[in-house]
Amino acid sequence: MEIFGISVPALAGQLLIGLFNGAFYALLSLGLAVIFGMLRIINFAHGAFYMLGAFSAYMLSAYLEASFWVSLLIVPLILAALAAVLERSMLQRLAGLDPLYGLLLTFGFALILEGGMQYVFGVAGQPYSPPASLSGASNLGFMFMPHYRAFVIVVSLIVCFGTWLLIERTKIGSILRAATENPSLSEVFGLNVPVLITATYAFGAALAGIAGIMAAPVFQVSPYMGSNLIIVVFAVVVIGGMGSIMGAIISGFALGLVEGLTKVIYSEASNVVVFVIMAIVLYFRPAGLFGKDA
Amino acid sequence: MIEENCLALSDIHGWYGESKALHGIEINVKRGQTVALMGRNGAGKTTTLRAITRQLTRTEGSITKDGQDISAVPRHKLAYKGIGFVPEDRGTYNSLSVQENLKLLPKVGNSGMSIDELHSFFPNIQERRHAPAGTLSGGEQQMLAMARVLLAGPDLILLDEPTEGLAPVFVQKIAELLQDLKKRGLTILLVEQNMLFTRKLADHFYMIENGLVVADFPAEELSENEELISRVLGV
Known about the structure:
With 294 residues, chain A is mainly alpha-helical.
């Protein structure tokens, strides 16, 4: 059986790869959306956080023989702590200034992190093995489903929708949204806004850390793995609507699928299809598909 | 007998950027009193509340709550000193539901109303609890802002022009609520321009002009000061 003149197993395989890439787009764009939506910081360090997540997992494994599962717990905490230090020591001083200053600072921070990792590890990719319990694949009849890829998609879905629930359906989320809407009045009401800002930034970085460690067994662990991906992720955020949590999640997975489908139909366009969609969306809906002003 | 000072402002000077707006405000609010701070637009009434709640660029002078200096207390800890604030623009969060707005503030005391009492006082709020606060009318938003601060339970409430732009039915409702709060012993600093509304509620009046208190008198001396009130309020 064929669809678009392509065999179903080949099409399903590409769609699975698209969904797998979409899982990373969703996780990373979610972190960016949380940080921008809550703090109005365009976090150019996000790709570097993702890269550090992968490198942290690699170093924990290489030097401490920590398993993938231990790293999956520890790495987000490492990234959150690093982001909290960055926010408290530098980003907090830019509060109230044009968002461009935050963009430049985080961009500079990303360059320092990438340069530092290149100095220590070089540009060649480092190996990182997936956990043995997730090796192998299952035959679904119409395609083979690698267990690790299925794991990444499921974890990404759980983390993404868990984050959405946290922000949209819990008291912590309503406190965060209130602090975003009117920070100074929220402080008068007794909300510790500076701590909330730090926590939000740290949480966004932790999401990038989760993406980083899950990427480590599949993509090469290299200093520039984040900078290669982050431009696409920014396009995903713009398409979803800057600051829209649900927009980031849905756009992330959907654009991963579209990219996968494009690879099957017209592979030459697969690297630009996301940007073409971004241009079309910006033309018709400048605030993005799920943006508040859309 | 009401004697103890709940809130005392001494020689308060305040700035918006480089522009000085308060020039040595002196106000004492005794425990259990409702004190009205009155003056024309731009006289410095709202700025005085902003000075108390640390929302000015720069504030100098002494602010004490229950005898304790709170001028250096971080802004997010003011609420825990028992200070509730209902700003001029209501300060409701439009992206949050009515219920989320109500549950937002930390509980700082027990001097407010229970949720059941609030629901009986503000039936509209109960009915529209799932609606975004931004979809409420001005009167309903004012009710929500009052209900929210009462649930937090402060013993001092700073109220900034609660009747501004409201239909008479809501003004009446707010007057009833404030009378009820007075009976419960809450201390209220009320910023208003509406003398008809304030004269039935306040125990003491402060008249403010150009960022300075020009007169103050107890409610019993209201009739003796009608000329002054007319001049200050421009009515």
